Amino acid sequence: MDAREFEPIDRSERVEPYVPPQKLRERGWRQMKKNRLALWGMVIVIVMTAAAIAGPWLAPYTYADQNLVDANAWPSSAHWFGTDSLGRDLFVRVLYGARISLSIGFAASLINFFIGVIYGGIAGLAGGRTDRMLMHIVDVLYSIPMLLYVILLMVVFKPGLVNIYIALGIAYWLNMARIVRGQILSLKQQEYVLAARSCGTSTWNVLCRHMIPNCMGPIIVTMTLSIPDAIFTEAFLSFIGLGVSAPMASWGVLASEGISSIRSFPFQLVFPAVALCLTMLGFMFLGDGLRDALDPQNQKEAGR
Amino acid sequence: MIGYLLKRLAGACVVLWVIITITFGLMHAIPGGPFTQEKQLPPAVMATVEARYHLNDPLWDQYLEYVKHAAVLDLGPSYKYPGKTVNDIIAETFPVSAELGLISLCLAIGIGIPAGMAAAWYKNTRADYVLMIGATLGVSVPSFIIAALLIQLFAFTWPVLPAAMWKGPAYAVLPALALAAHPTAFIMRLTRSGILDALAQDYIRTARSRGVGEWSLLCRHALRNALLPVVSYIGPLAAALLTGSFVVETIFAIPGLGRHFVTSIYNRDYTVILGITIFYSFLIMMMNLLIDVIYPFLDPRIALKQDTKEE
C-alpha cells in the first residue's frame, strides 16, 4: 500500500468540547421549565403551603371561634367561605385544614424517607444474604393491604395528629426502600465509591455522604408522590371517624362534615373539597414533572 | 408449575400467620377490654362475659386459641352482636360487597381500557386532553366526595336514581360509579402510557410495513403488550375496590362488608375488626397470587420464579 493513500486525520473534529457535568438541580430545573403542568403544580403547592403557614395568623377568627348567630351563613365579605353549623368561619377552618393536611403529607413522607433510606440503604450496601432477606420481608409486607393496618393502628392509638403521622409513616415506606435499594445497588459499582472506600471512609459515611446524595432524584420524586397519597389516606380516615380530633379539622374532616349538609349548604362541602383536590392535583403534576426531569429511567410508569 | 403453586401457597400461609399475629397483638394492645364501657357492668356479669369469651385466660393461650380457630376458618364470635359469629357476618355481607365490587371492576375495565386506548391513539389532540383531565380528576377526588356529588346530582337535583339502600339493579348504579371512578382513571392512565410505549416499538413498525391495518395494529399488536401493567394492577385494584367500598357502602347505606367494617370500628367490635382484616388480607393475597400465576401466560417472556421481581 502506498503511504499517500493515507489521509491525515483532521484533529479539530475529533476533539469533543468539554461539557462540564451538569448538576442534578440545574438539569432538573431546565427540564421542569419546559413542563407547564409541573410548573402549575409547583405554584399550587407553594401557594397552599404559604397559605397554610401564614394564613391563620392573618385571619381575624380562629378555627374554634363559635358564633351561633352567624351559623350556616352563606359566603359573604365577612366570612369569605361562609360559616359552618356552629358559626365557625369556614375560610379560617380551611386554612387551618391546610396546615393539618399538608403537615400530615410532609410528616408522613419524611418518616417514609428515613425508614426507607435506612432500610433500603442497608439492604443495598450489605448485598448477598442480608439483602435477600430484607427484600423478602418487603415483598411479604407488600402483599398486606396497608390501609387496613393504618386503620388498625388508628383504632389502637387514639385518633390524633401525631398518631396519624406515625401510622402513615410506618405503613408506606416499602416503596421508598425498594427504590433506594435499587439505586444503591447500581451506585455500589461506581469507581468513586471504591475511591472513597480506599481512602478509609466508613461505611456509614459512604452511604450518607456519597451514595444517598446521588440517588436524591428518585427519592425526591417518590417523596413528592407520596404526599398526596398521605393526604388522601388521611381524608379517608377522617371520613370513617379516625382522623384528627375536634375542634381541629383537616380537609378530610371538613369535607365529610360538609357532606352531611350538602343539600342545604353545599358551600360547606365545596370549599374544603376544592382545596383538597387542588392540592392533590398540584402535588401529582409536580411529582410527574419531577419524575420526567430528575428520573428519566422511570418516565414510563404512569402511576405506581 | 405445581411446585411453584405449592411454594407460593406455603408462603401465603406464613404471611397469613404473620398477619394474624400482628392484628392480634395490635388489638390486645388497646387499653381497656372490649367490654369496658361508660356504664360499668356488675362484676359478676363482667366475670361471666369474660369467661365466655376466654378473656381471663393468659394472653398466650388466647393467641393459640385464636390461631387454632383461624386455621380452620373460624374467626370467633362478635362482641357486639351476641349469638353471631364473625363468619356469619362475613357470609351475610360479603356477597353484597362482591357483587358491587364486580360491577365496579367491569365498569373500570370496560371504560378505562377503551378510553386509555383512545387517548393514546389521539395523542396530544383535544380528545386526549379531555380524557386525561378526566382521569386526573378521577384520581385526585376522594371517593366520598364523588359519591356525595353523584347523590346530589342524580338523586336530588335530577331524581332518576335511588340515593341509598340495596334493593335492585337501579340501586347499584350510583355506588358502582362512585366506586369505579378511581380505578377507571388509573387504568386509563396505565393503558394510555402502555399503548404509547408499545406503539414506539420496532415490532409495530414491522407489522405496519407488512400492511397490517391501523385498527388491528392498535387492538391486536399494541394492546397485548400495553395490557400487562393493567393486569398487574388488578391486585392493587382489588384492594382499592375493597377500601373504596368502606366509604361507598357507608354513604349509600349498602349492607355490605365494607359498611360493616366501618360500623365495627365505630362500635369497637374488636373480633369483627380482626376477622374482617384477616379476611381482606387473605382475599388480596389470593388476588396477587392469581395474577402472578396467570402473568406468564400473557407474557411468555416472564418465567415463573420463586423470587419475585428484581429491581
Automatic annotation (TrEMBL), chain B:
Protein's organism: Megasphaera cerevisiae DSM 20462
Compartments it resides in: Cell membrane
Chief location bin: membrane
Transmembrane segments: 9-30, 102-122, 129-158, 170-188, 230-252, 272-295
GO biological process, one term: transmembrane transport
A GO CC term attached to the entry: plasma membrane
Domain ABC transmembrane type-1, chain residue ranges per copy: 94-295
Protein name: Peptide ABC transporter permease
Keywords for the protein's UniProt record, in alphabetical order: Cell membrane, Membrane, Transmembrane, Transmembrane helix, Transport
Membrane topology field: Multi-pass membrane protein
Family membership noted in the UniProt record: Belongs to the binding-protein-dependent transport system permease family.
